[in-house]
Design a protein that fits this description.
The protein is built from 26 helices and six strands. It is mainly alpha-helical. Among the domains are: 82 residues; 92 residues; 134 residues, no CATH class; 108 residues. Strands 2-1-3-6-5-4 form a six-stranded mixed sheet, covered by helices on one side. The protein starts with a helix and ends with a strand.
Amino acid sequence: MFAALPAICFVALLLFFGSRGDLRAGFLKAAVICGFVVVASTEVLSLPGLISAPALVAVWILVAAVAVMLVWRDRAQIAQRLRVRSLGPSRRVLVAVGVPVGLILAATGVIAWSAPPNTYDSMTYHMARVAHWVADGTVAAYPTSVVRQLYYPPFAEYAVLHLQLLSGGDHLANCVQWLSMFGSVAGVSLIAQQLGSPLNGQALAAVVVATLPMGILQATSTQTDYVLAFWLVCGVSFALDFIAHPKPGAAGWFASSLGFAMMTKGTAYVFAAPVVLLIGGWMVVRLRSRALAPIVIMVSIPLAINAGYYIRNEAIFHSPLATDAGDLANARFDPQVTLSNVVRDTILQFGTSNPNANLFLERGVARVHSQLLHIGLNDPGTTWSGATFHVNPLSFDEDYAGDPIQALLAIVTGLAAIGLAFRRGPPLLAIYSIGLVVALLVFASYLRWQPWHARLELPLLVASAPLSAAVISRIANTATVTALGAILVLAAVPWVIDNQTRPLVGFALPTAINPQPRLVPTGETIFNASRNDLYFVKDPSLEAPYVRVAKQAAAQQCHEIALRGGPDSWEYPFWVLTNEFGDNARIDQVFVDNPSAGATRFGSTPCMLVSVTSDQPSSMFLDGVEFAMSWSQDGVGLYQPR
C-alpha cells in the first residue's frame, strides 16, 4: 500500500502538468518533481540518520497530498483536457503502435516485478549499498572493500531505497529501470515531434526505443544505464523547449534533468557534453546579456542536486567524482585512439549468432588497426586491463547484448540528416546528428575499450531514435515506416521472452538464434524457479555456501556478520538470505584497505566472520578477538570467535 504513494504522486503531477500542454511533456516534468522529492528527502533525512519506512511514508503522503490538491483545484481544466475526442485517422496510428509497444512494456514490467535483482553489479554494489542505507538510516560513508558502493553516483539507488522501504522488500527494485524505459519511450516520441516529425515519425521513435534488445534486457534489472538514458531524454527535450522559449523556467527544467543525469552515472558527463556546449553556444550568440540568468540556473541546480554526493566523496576520497577514473580512461588522447575505440565500440552492436561472421568482423577490425590506424588492436593504453578485443556473439544478457538494427538506423539516418542539410533540409536535424557524433567521439576518446561497452552505449542509441524517426518519416512513405516498425517489433520478441537471467518462458531458443548456453535451466522461468536460485544465476557455485552461512547465523541468532571481501565480492545475497532465514542480520565489511577504512562503522561487535577472498587463513584477529575457521566451501569461509 505504501509503495503506491509515489505512483499516486506521479499520476497527479502528470495530470497537473499534462493539462497545461503535451501529456508527454507532463510525464517528464512529473518525473523531475519526483526526482527532487527522492533526492531532497534522502539527503535531509540522512543527516540525522532518520532514513526509515515511517519517515518516507510521511514524506510521500505529504507530497502526494499536495499533488492531489493541485489536481483537485484544476479538475475542470484537466477533465476538459482528458475528454475523449475523435482522433480521426490518427487513431489507427496510435492503436497500431500502442498495442505492440504496450505488450513489450507489459511483459518487461511483469519480469521486472517478478524477478529478483540478479545482475553481477547488483550483487556487488547496486543493491548492497541500498541494504547498508536501510540498516544505517543514512547514506553516509561506511567501510567497504567494494568502494563503488560509496563513490558511484547514487540517484538510481536512492529511488530503489525509497521503494524498498515503502514496500518492505526488493520486489520493486528492477522497476526503477523499467519506469525509465517507459519514460524514454514517451520522451523520444516528444523529441521526434520537436524535430518536426509527423505522427507516424513520433510513433516510430517510440517503437525504435521500445524494441532495443539491450533496453529490453536492462529494463528488468538494477543496472543504471536506462535511468541515465531517461534523464538525458528529458534534458534533450527541455533543451529544445528552451531554445524555442528561452525563459528561466525552461532553463530550470533542463538544468534539473542534467543534474539527475549527473547523479545517475558518470557517463552522463560524456553524453551530455554536446547538449551543454550547444546550449551554451546558442545562449552566447542569441541571448547575449540575457544569457546570465539561464547560465546561473543551469550551473547552480545541477550542483545543488549533487552537493551531498560530491561532499561525501570529497571527504573520503578527496575527489567529488569516481576514484577509478585512471583505470577507465585512455592512457593517451589522440585521433588514432579515438578512431580505434569508435570502430571497436561500434562493432560491438553487430555481433551475430554465427561464429564465422563474428570472426570476419574481428579480422576486418584488425586490418583497420594494422593498415590504417597503425595502433595495436589490444593496446593496453586503450583497452580495459586483462581484456582482448573480440566481437560478442548475439547475446541475451544485459551486459553484452547489441542493438544491430537500431545502431544501423542511427548511422544511416545520421549521415542522411547531414546530407539533407546540404539540400536545404532542416538544419536542426543536422545539428542533432552532429551532437550524437560528438557524444560518441567524446565517449571513445575518454573511455578505454571494454567488452561491455554495448551496455554503456544504450543512452546514445535511445537519444538517436528521434533522429532516425524524423529522417525516415521525412523521406519514406507511411507503408515503409509501418513495415520498419513491424520488423523491429518482431525482431525484439526473443529478447522479451528469453532474457538470459530472467526468462519469461521455459523453452530455450534454438542456438541459431541464441548461441549462448541458457543460464536458467530449460523449463524454469521467473514464475517457477526458486527466487534464491535466480539471485545466484550469474554464479550458481556461491548459492550453497551463502545459504549455509545464512542458516548458521540464524541458528546462532547472530545479527552482526563481519565480511572479509575484495573489490568485486558479492555482498547483497548475504543481506537477503540472513534476513530470510533469520531476522534483521546486518553485514559489515572488515579488513578494508582503502580510504573508506576511516569511515564510521555502524555495526556492533560481530558474532561471526565470513571470508570470500581467494586466501582462507585458519584464523584471523578482529577487534582483539580471534576468529577460527569453522568450515570452507567454494571460496567461502566461515569463522567463529574462539
